[in-house]
Amino acid sequence: MRVLHIGKFGPPFFGGIENFMMDLDQSCYGQEVSVGAVVHHHQGKHLAFEQQTVNDVQLYRVPCYGQFMFAPVSPKFGVYLNRAIADFKPDVLHIHMPNTSAFFALLYKSARNIPWVVHWHSDVIGDDSPWFLRLFYPLYRPFESQILKRAAKIIVTSPPYLQVSQTLKRFLPKTKVLGLGIKSPEVFSRPSISEGNELNLLMVGRLTYYKGHQVLIEAMARLKLQGLTKVRLSIVGSGELEPVLVKQIESLGLAAQVSLLGRLDDGQLREQFIGADCLCLPSIERTEAYGVVLMEAAAYALPAIVTDVPGSGMSWVVQHDITGLVVKRKNPDALALAIKTLAQQPTKRLGYAMAARARFEQSFNIEQVAKETIQLYRAQLATTKSAGDQA
After folding, report:
1. 199-364, what's its fold?
2. What is the pLDDT of residues 199-245, one digit of tens each?
3. What is residue 257's predicted lDDT score, i.e. its pLDDT?
4. Which residues fall within 8 angstroms of residue 157, CB to CB, at 6 or more apart?
5. CATH class (in words) of the domain with range 2-183+365-390
């Protein structure tokens, strides 16, 4: 069986969905599945179509001219997708949404003749989406609906998200909840946990509006006023919000407590996970549909603090008072209290850490997710073959 993915970007691009897609592809490879992926170049200086094999995955990199409203600008994506289909000869197309370039699959017979599995990572519109997304969404929505209509199966990443997604309501009969997964990290020895009101807090993610960075920095200011100056926050990631965050950190006098580390390579990020005591993901809306970084934290035996965004899978991945804490969204006081609790109760924090690691092994290991995904591919191929025979 041959499966071709359509995604936004590929390695070494840093992103939760992108990392999951590549982990899934590599885990499927060898289980009687050959895997390819059509993605955009994430660096504008590379404007040529390229083919290369990365960790057993055939990557087709399509020219991209930057991003507009968080979407890659790639006017010839359809041409290169058609070329990739002719070269790879897939049995299944696995489309990761949202992704405006995936709409090109609607235009080409080569794509329409193949069964589609759509991986629904998030709705485009959330409660706090920028005005420009709300303005242009009516233009996007008809194409999105056509993608879902043509899909043989739609994978949704958590039960809470499926329950509240307005977009998916018309397509419930062909949805399937299948959680995300990642590779287990190499064996490591976690340092002894910090004590005495010390806490090394880590946040990993793109510096963008829905991640809640500003709320977390405000919570750090609350902790400083309470005398908890040994709580330190390291923020990993890059994005359009960086100048705003730099100004906020300076204005609140938090330079000694909060560090913006920018984008890190895999080895540097691994060191951050190993050196942290807790991960925080204070996202403010349902665009944060899951939080792949929460699984990464669990894999490193890190408890997590997340917010109670309605419909988001964050509070499903992190079990309140078992593997971490769930607090009110957009509430710096609630965040500060949760951070203070973990700083002052290292024994409780260690209990959460061990429970998080156990949950990772049980629910979020990519090998198990790959097996279930392959079963889904086979079921769709069998259904397609049966329909063809009857015709």
Report:
1. Rossmann fold (3.40.50)
2. 999 999 999 989 999 999 999 999 999 999 999 999 999 999 999 99
3. 97
4. 119, 120, 121, 177, 178, 179, 180, 289, 290, 313
5. alpha beta
